[in-house]
Design goal:
Blueprint (H helix, E strand, L loop, with lengths): L1 H20 L3 H21 L4 H15 L2 H9 L2 H4 L2 H22 L9 E7 L5 E8 L7 E10 L2 E9 L2 E2 H15 L3 H12 L2
Antiparallel strand pairs: 1-2, 2-3, 3-4, 4-5
Helix pairs in contact: 2-3, 3-6, 4-6, 4-7, 6-8, 7-8
């Protein structure tokens, strides 16, 4: 009886700890609303040059995306075997490439607004999905889902899923395949990413 009581108590404490660690859905949604309305929508609709837009996106992404976390994830198991210099070079070029890509990609949403569809749980208690969509002139709305991670009370985006395609998972698959085929491994990947930068 005593063992049963202790087992039940342990289970209750574990459930309480999990509940306490769970990310706040409303807080995560408000965070993404701020990113989209005060960040992305203002930038894509602003009458500024692409150079200035890139500069502002750099500030926005460095502030709201955890590109270090994402970079480690997309490099996968090769992160463990990479040297410190390779890790630094990869994160730097990956960061620049993402900023460049999304500065251009989000211009597709010019004149449009994100609509919020609620949140979805993640397998990780410190992460949550915020679902949005963007009405398009033709066809169905574009689905954009944001994976948000909370660390020490701070919200950061760790993945963007557009039309059910995870950018982080896609990059991880592509980079892993490239490293496996390249005779120069990670060094080859870093050089290839650098050539894709303007």
């Amino acid at each position: 009886m005593k063992k049963l009581f202790m087992a039940l108590l342990a289970t209750m404490l574990m459930n309480m700890a999990t509940a306490d660690a769970a990310i706040d859905g409303a807080k995560a949604e408000n965070f993404i609303k701020k990113v989209t309305t005060q960040g992305i929508e203002q930038l894509v609709n602003a009458n500024i040059s692409q150079s200035e837009r890139d500069t502002r996106f750099t500030k926005l992404f460095n502030q709201d995306l955890d590109l270090d976390f994402i970079g480690k994830f997309v490099l996968g198991r090769y992160w463990r075997t990479a040297t410190e210099q390779q890790r630094t070079e990869f994160i730097n070029v990956y960061r620049k490439l993402n900023i460049q890509t999304w500065s251009e990609r989000f211009t597709e949403f010019k004149g449009k607004h994100f609509e919020f569809l609620g949140t979805e749980k993640s397998k990780s208690p410190d992460q949550i999905f915020v679902a949005t969509q963007v009405p398009m002139q033709e066809g169905a709305p574009a689905s954009v889902k944001w994976r948000v991670k909370e660390t020490n009370g701070n919200m950061r985006i760790v993945d963007i899923i557009i039309e059910n395609v995870s950018l982080a998972q896609t990059a991880r698959s592509e980079y892993t395949s490239y490293i496996q085929k390249s005779p120069d491994g990670i060094e080859g990947l870093i050089r290839d990413l650098k050539t894709k930068l303007k």
